[in-house]
């Protein structure tokens, strides 16, 4: 028999479900029944959810897998890690709505069969500070431990980042914490869905301001005519593109901090570029062309689009390494020589990018090799 | 300032020669991507040449041409790589 | 007599042209498109960067310099992206990267 429980907003997980058991909702049948004498093996599946294009399919896969998959589960826990302190009350509200939607979807997927599956949805980490990817990992592993969960199913597009743009390489991190992790084999329908996203006034204002600034800069005059036409152009640009160009939330404090750290990063990057350029110049001009190209792959510990793009471009700019493909955090990098490969896997650049986007603490994390990623060579 | 002007013009000339040399790769290929890379380099060189001319002739207005050309150059690379694969998507 | 200012501009130009040459030589000598993309995407970017810096210095302070810097930033952002897009397109088409084992097969 199916039982769906919903509880929100309590970080203390063990209390939470008791609190919410009174709100148990029937699914798959008109009447709610208790679980009765069903054999409880205690196998539970944890599914972290967030707003994502593949969420619907992930939910379907989780439910189907739990009911008829190889390893059956008695319970599926859909959890939404969201922090009120970081993301604000409005975000918590939308997370709550999403969880309700998930519960409804799970109910639809269970259908009339009324299988013996408990579905729980829960908002976790509401009163925590969720900043760095590590916070998410800790939160999820704590939850799993408290609930006695050993298996995790990941939505491939999971990103609790509409307000916190961090998508941890959860798979590796959670596995290290001793959990069995699987990524749901689902794909989003079309890429077009992702082009237009939710955005607020912040994005609009920022985009308009940037466009206006650029217009005036290029125009090079502050005459009344330029001011007016610039304002009109900026308004048009922002109206058309505000939901496409900027995806993350606009938080001025963070923006300034990142820009400041970017200023520290730039000289470092320039230095790396020059050093590595001389290296490539030597290689290219050397009569015997001492190259040993190889494609390496590794998972970078940066999450969400702008940091990933920054890292990918930085890798490409430092000669000897060229980013060929990036799928989420999985980088495929073409390296020209042995030494450039070493530098890449030592992770200096990656640390620098983490420093820019996540602050000093994140910069001290391990590089790809220390994470046990030796660049899994492709033939 | 004539020394600087001369130096700028000589450098621009060097870039022109380099671009002509790179034409070999554009003609030779062998793959489409090889040609795109080479064209992209020629495009970057062109931007530099325009900027050097702007500096040498002290006519900053020419810089706008360089800016637009840089934009077009980038768009061309992206467009060609997009249309040479069936993968679709924006980038 | 060459002043420090002129010397700096000429040094920048020499560096820029040098890396421009490296990019062109790399483009002609390197064995496959991935390795060529290396030369194209960065030695050329650095070469262009140095030359543009020389142009900015020659133009003196003011709006033109801002524009050159903008151009510089733009090149640094777009060149790697373009190289990335091109090589990914190549990888999607299944073009195999050249490895040192292919040496001796000739180009």
Protein architecture, described:
Chain A: InterPro entries: Cation_antiport_E, Rossmann-like_a/b/a_fold. Chain A: It is found in: Cell membrane. Chain A: The chain crosses the membrane at residues 199-218, 224-242, 263-285. Chain A: This is Monovalent cation/H+ antiporter subunit E. The complex is a heterotrimer of chains A (379), B (91) and C (107). Chain A is of the alpha/beta class and 379 residues long. Chain A is built from 13 helices and 10 strands. Chain A folds into 3 domains: 2-192, Rossmann fold (3-Layer(aba) Sandwich); 201-241; 252-363, no CATH class. In chain A, strands 2-1-5-4-3-6-7 form a 7-stranded mixed β-sheet, sandwiched between helices. In chain A, strands 8-10-9 form a 3-stranded antiparallel β-sheet, with helices on one face. In chain A, helix 2 packs across helix 4 and helix 7 runs antiparallel to helix 8 (224-241). Chain A is globular. Chain A starts with a strand and ends in a 16-residue tail after the last helix. With 91 residues, chain B is mainly alpha-helical. Chain B contains 3 helices and no strands. In chain B, helix 1 (2-28) packs antiparallel against helix 2 (32-56) and helix 2 (32-56) packs antiparallel against helix 3. The longest helix of chain B has 27 residues, at 2-28. Chain B is flat and about 50 Å long. The model of chain B is unreliable at 87-91 (pLDDT under 50). Chain C has 107 residues and is mostly helical. Chains in contact: A-B, A-C, B-C. Chains A and B meet through loops of A and loops of B.
Topology, element by element:
The complex is a heterotrimer of chains A (379), B (91) and C (107).
Chain A: E1 2-7, H1 13-20, E2 25-26, E3 44-48, H2 55-68, E4 75-81, H3 84-87, H4 89-110, E5 117-124, H5 133-147, E6 151-154, H6 170-176, E7 180-183, H7 201-219, H8 224-241, H9 252-285, E8 294-299, H10 305-317, E9 321-327, E10 330-335, H11 338-346, H12 348-358, H13 360-363
Parallel strand pairs in A: 1-5, 3-4, 3-6, 4-5, 6-7
Antiparallel strand pairs in A: 1-2, 8-10, 9-10
Helix pairs in contact in A: 2-4, 7-8, 9-12, 10-12
Chain B: H1 2-28, H2 32-56, H3 62-83
Helix pairs in contact in B: 1-2, 2-3
Chain C: H1 4-29, H2 33-59, H3 63-92
Helix pairs in contact in C: 1-2, 2-3
């Amino acid at each position: 028999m199916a039982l769906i429980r919903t509880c929100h907003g309590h970080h203390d997980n063990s209390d939470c479900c008791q609190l919410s058991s009174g709100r148990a909702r029937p699914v798959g049948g008109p009447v709610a029944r208790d679980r009765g004498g069903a054999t409880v093996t205690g196998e539970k599946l944890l599914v972290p959810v967030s707003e994502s294009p593949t969420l619907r399919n992930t939910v379907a896969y989780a439910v189907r897998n739990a009911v008829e998959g190889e390893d059956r589960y008695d319970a599926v826990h859909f959890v939404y890690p969201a922090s009120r302190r970081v993301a604000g009350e409005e975000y918590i509200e939308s997370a709550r709505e999403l969880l309700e939607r998930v519960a409804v979807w799970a109910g639809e997927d269970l259908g009339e069969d009324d299988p013996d599956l408990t579905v729980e949805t829960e908002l976790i980490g509401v009163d925590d500070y969720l900043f760095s990817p590590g916070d998410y990992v800790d939160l999820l592993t704590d939850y799993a431990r408290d609930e006695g969960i050993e298996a995790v199913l990941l939505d491939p597009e999971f990103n609790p980042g509409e307000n916190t743009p961090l998508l941890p390489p959860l798979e590796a991190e959670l596995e290290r914490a001793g959990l069995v992790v699987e990524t749901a084999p689902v794909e989003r329908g079309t890429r077009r869905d992702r082009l237009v996203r939710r955005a607020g006034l912040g994005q609009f204002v920022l985009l308009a301001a940037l466009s206006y600034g650029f217009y005036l800069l290029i125009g090079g005059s502050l005459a009344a005519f330029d001011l007016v036409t610039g304002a009109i152009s900026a308004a048009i640009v922002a109206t058309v593109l505000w939901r496409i160009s900027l995806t993350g939330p606009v938080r001025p404090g963070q923006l300034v901090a990142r820009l400041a750290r970017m200023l520290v990063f730039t000289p470092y990057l320039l230095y790396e570029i020059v050093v590595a350029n001389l290296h490539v110049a030597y290689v290219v001009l050397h009569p015997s062309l001492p190259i040993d190209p190889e494609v390496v792959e590794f998972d970078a510990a940066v999450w969400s689009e702008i940091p990933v793009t920054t890292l990918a471009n930085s890798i490409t700019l430092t000669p000897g390494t060229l980013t060929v493909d990036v799928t989420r955090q999985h980088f495929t990098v073409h390296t020209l020589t042995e030494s450039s490969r070493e530098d890449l896997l030592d992770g200096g650049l990656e640390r620098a990018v983490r420093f820019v986007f996540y602050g000093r603490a994140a910069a001290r994390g391990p590089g790809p090799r220390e994470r046990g990623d030796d660049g899994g060579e492709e033939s | 300032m004539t020394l600087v002007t001369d130096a700028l013009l000589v450098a621009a000339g060097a870039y022109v020669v380099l671009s002509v040399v790179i034409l070999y790769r554009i003609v030779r290929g062998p793959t489409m991507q090889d040609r795109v890379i080479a064209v992209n380099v020629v495009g970057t060189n062109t931007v530099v040449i325009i900027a050097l001319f702007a500096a040498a002739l002290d006519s900053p207005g020419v810089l706008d041409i360089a800016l637009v050309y840089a934009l077009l150059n980038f768009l061309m690379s992206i467009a060609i790589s997009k249309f040479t694969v069936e993968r679709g998507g924006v980038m | 007599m060459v002043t420090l200012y002129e010397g700096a501009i000429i040094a920048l130009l020499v560096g820029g042209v040098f890396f421009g040459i490296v990019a062109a030589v790399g483009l002609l000598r390197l064995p496959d498109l991935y390795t060529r993309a290396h030369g194209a995407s960065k030695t050329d970017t650095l070469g262009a960067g140095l030359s543009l810096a020389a142009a900015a210095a020659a133009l003196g302070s003011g709006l033109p310099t801002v524009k050159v810097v903008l151009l510089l930033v733009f090149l640094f952002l777009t060149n790697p992206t373009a190289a990335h897009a091109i090589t990914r397109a190549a990888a999607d088409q299944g073009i195999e990267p050249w490895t040192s084992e292919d040496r001796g097969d000739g180009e």
